[in-house]
Amino acid sequence: MTMTKVIKKYILVTKPGIILGNLVTAMGGFFLASKGRIDIVALLSTIIGISLVVASGCVFNNCIDRDMDRKMARTRNRILARGLMSPKAAVFYASLLGTVGIILLQISTNMLSVSIVLIGFAIYVVVYSLCLKRNSVYSTLIGSLAGTAPPLAGYCAVSNHFDMGAMILLSIFSLWQMPHCYAIAIYRFQDYTAAGIPILPVHQEMPATKRHIVCYIMAFMAATLMLTVGGYTGYIYLATVVVIGLSWLSMALAGFKKSDERIWAKKLFVFSILTIAVLSVMMATDFTVSDTSQMLLTSAH
Questions:
Q1: For 42-61, how does the pLDDT look when each residue is reduced to its tens digit (9 = 90+)?
Q2: Of 177, 125, 128, 170, whose CA–CA distance to 151 is shortest?
Q3: What pLDDT does 273 receive?
């Protein structure tokens, strides 16, 4: 095997798409707390450290799920499912990534940020992947908390406080995970059925899942508004999240009338990614006018 193929194999096993998504949300949290006063070194150290720990969790997940992955069309070509890397090598690689990531975060951030990343890692690898994914319909709900770790860690790397802003981010990103995951489960319904994963669309009838999706999107929309109500973001952010939230909700409601649920679910899933990306960008760029004005007034005096 050529060196290029070896490197590609070690990159692919970390799920680069998931790392990129978490990178965007981590930067959103960091910029939100920074309010325009960016420490580039701290930013780079934080997002690299978080990305390494996320990569570690993804490799462990691939190792744990390799038997199920072989049963699913979407995942059967993953590195460990195909036997292109030994579980022993994967565990060593994941441990190395996680260790380096945590050391970098410990040096460059604070214990609160490190603790959030470690808790997110434990939820994803131990609670979700090892314990609940194969056994409980509630695995998605518990696993959604792991997805909140990158934006929370990014935010707390700057603030060093678990304040109301952190609580709002926890609500936003955990609530977003639910319709996002349910949409992909409907789109890949046959895969999840074949693998025996008791996610909601497999465990209950489809109308019940659609109702859950609508309720979670509505709760997500309410949570996104709290950043402006709480004085963390401005009105451009507010207008943007209202428009994109209503669009996502409209797509979800349309699912009750669609005959081809698979196509509808795929569109809903893709739009969910757009939704969280836009939200992350907006909360990073539209920090509160009131805080900025207060800084200017303070400087003037």
A1: 999 999 999 999 999 999 99
A2: 170
A3: 97
